[in-house]
Amino acid sequence: xxxxxxxxxxxxxxxxxxQQLLRGKDGRQEDSLLFLGNWHGAYPAALVVDPALSATDVxxxxxxxxxxxxxxxxxxxxxxxxxxCNRLRISRATLAQSLVRLRMTRWLSxxxxxxxxxxxxxxxxxxxxxxxxxxxxxxxxxxxxxxxVEGMAHGHPDQRTTAAARAVLAGIEDDIQGxxxxxxxxxxxxxxxxxxxxxxxxxxxxxxxxxxxxxLGQTPSSNSELGENPSSKIExxxxxPSSKIExxxxxxxxxxSSKIExxxxxxxxSSSNKTTTTTTGDAGEKDGPPMRWPKMLTDNERRLIVRWLxxxxxxxxxxxxxxxxxxxxxxxxxxxxxxxxxxxxxxxLCERVRDGTFEPVDLPxxxxxxxxxxxxxxxxxxxxxxxxxxRGEIEALEQLARAASSDDTRDALRxxxxxLQARLGHE
Length: 427
Known about the structure:
Blueprint: H1 3-22, H2 45-48, H3 55-70, H4 81-88, H5 92-104, E1 108-115, E2 121-128, H6 135-141, H7 145-153, H8 159-178, H9 188-201, E3 205-206, E4 209-210, E5 244-247, E6 250-253, H10 299-309, H11 314-332, H12 342-355, H13 365-368, H14 370-378, H15 383-403, H16 407-425
Antiparallel strand pairs: 1-2, 3-4, 5-6
């Protein structure tokens, strides 16, 4: 570029600022500033040393961050796939894999996939993080997180993606066995110190990733089930997502999704109601009716609870689900909410099973009392059926009150019991 051309471009740049000042609405005096140097931006140091990410993954993250900083504060437009691919000179398939790995390692969350009333895809809402968020935050922010990770771990054409997914699941399994991050908010400083150590030693935990599982073609023998979806062994119940994973308008087929039994929702390749579960410590299978799940659980919560269920004997699995259902119902009746959601509470129930202090409830709330309790609620049905339903609910709530860990929860359950007893006295 010669001097004349350079001067012309600089004059045009200055003149655009002049015109911007003249377009001011209120006529107030104000100044304009031109920065003629190189723009510099900060980036997370942990990003560039994340062992689960490729160089392209890092570039994609940095481009998304740079694009966001160029926009105004608050929600901004996510850069289009065409823009990212053109600027970084990568294919759409490569971009899709990078976004999947960024989501699995929790640098990026897909908060919502938006469709209009006609079902047409209108866009997605993403959240970008300055460090990998905890599992509990990922479950809240990314409704399809567990389905994505399990699907990718079951088998993906790209070995790096499969290895990253299995490394993430290994971290979840380790936390379940140790009773830590998978059910609680972890200590941020501890997570960062562990990440630093993992980078320097090439082993251990880098946030939610077990580094040892990232060696392509190698799978540590400590857990042989990471490559299979545990949901194929335990029924997840109805209303589960389909076997396709959405990522910003792009649809990725889950590998091996036909092995996931989704109950009566009709989205599974199997129409049988047979539920296959595993006992703790062996691979035995047993036939039985589909498990009854609390209705308020999200898909992420169900998939994580499946992994907790595998830590307790089969005979207790439905009982702890029933206890969780009653706790959720108690909240609806005025009991204090669960501070960190149902997962930490369910973890404590499983711990009680293992140490022998769990006190099971008598009624399977959803199946046994559904019709009779509904009839009692609207005044229909025979008096014996109404009384039987009420007595069952009272007995179950009494057992849950005896096992309650706080006075507030116990008092709320007793108030509910008193209301049901008053209704029973009028039958």
